Please model this.
Amino acid sequence: MTKPRDFDALKAMVETGEIDTVLVCFVDMQGRLMGKRFHGVNFIKYSFEETHCCNYLLATDIEMSTPDGYVSTSWQSGYGDYVMKPDLSTIRPVPWLEATALVLCDVLDHHTKEAVSHSPRAVLKKQISSLGELGFEAKMATELEFFLFEESFDYIRKSGFKDLKPISGYNEDYHIFQTTKEEGVMRPIRNHLFEAGLPIENTKGEAEAGQEELNIRYSSALDCADHHSIAKHAIKEIAWQNGHAATFLPKWDKDRVGSSSHIHQSIWKNGTSAFYEKSAKHGMSKVMKYYMAGLIKYAPDYTYFLAPNINSYKRFSKGTFAPTKTVWSIDNRTAGFRLCGEGTEGVRAECRIGGSDLNPYLAQAVMLAAGIKGIQEKMDLSPATTGDVYNDTKATNIPQTLRAATEKLRNSSFLREALGEDVVDHYVRAAEWEQEEFDRVVTDWEIERGFERA
Ligand code: ADP
Model:
């Protein structure tokens, strides 16, 4: 299939019948694609301008329930509509589905046509524009880690999520033989996404049985978040097409390592990296030092956006490569932040705290906000740490529970100023609801532990 990458190309392909379906999507709070499947002809004639969706979609939890307590929408206000405004620059083919293309939308208020401030794409665009006001542009890359399973989503769900069997029998970190066995799923993931216009670098086995990683070449922050969302969706869909399940739950087994989403970031000016200074130590410019100092200082405030679910916090255990300390280090994987590309033009900050369930728009936005603050205030960067950071008792911890992260977010004057009061209140409510839902549940662990012996 040739590639509809812009509106004219899409129109031509709809007219010849090569494309008959257009997925018109926005990204929800959980980072999922939500939207409608349009007939191609309707899309190119009418719906390319706008379509609509119920506004509960940006105030729901992962189960699609409708918690109370959101200011933006509620049963009292009758759950009105949002405008979904296709961003035609995001048109791309969906090569793993027949005759299908996709476009991502910005979410706008139905009446004012202003961006809905808590919609993830708008949250990120606001920070990109603040950075632009300082004369900089951000380049980002997110790594996607996930697990593949022998059985399908439907089989696993119908079996009560019991006896989960990862697709491989052993740790497959960098393993070529084991990953050859998985090429039935992983090759179409790489190739279809590449054909969809994502700059795919590679996939590799990760450090657990059945664990995979997809790497996408860095790009502008908005493109990076778009790529992440489309890739995550594609991974699930292509795994499903092949009779397998893929999970981005950060921790699905207490005895195995979890899945993360490391975020690489650098700041550029006029086409060159403003993070690089040849003669400076490690090649780190002043801008990079300020930016990293901001990242580190505010990590506890924004941890919620790197770990938004109850399960996210199960990943943060000692000796698992999931860092919990707000320190930086050079090429040391136990620190929350790692300097990569030392002494080269590719020098960059990697945040290793986030789990595979993060929403890339929100995660990138809050880190940009922290970096911007660091640059504006010319913050001092503490020296790099060395050795096993897990045992560094002086280093600050990020919040270790969703409850603690929620309180940090609620009380963060920095995030209230950077994102807006309404946006922070919205996500505090999302965090509270996730906790409330968990608190109502009696877990298998409690029953097994206490049923007889309590
Ligand atoms: P590693 O071998 O540690 O995984 P890679 O060279 O594969 O490191 O890079 C990891 C990610 O960092 C890739 O997605 C890459 O595109 C991205 N990256 C490289 N240079 C930069 C940069 N200057 N800014 C942001 N991301 C970058």
Residues 327 and 335 are 6 Å apart (CA to CA). The radius of gyration is 22 Å. Residues 221-241 form the longest helix (21 residues). The chain has two domains: 7-115, 127-445.
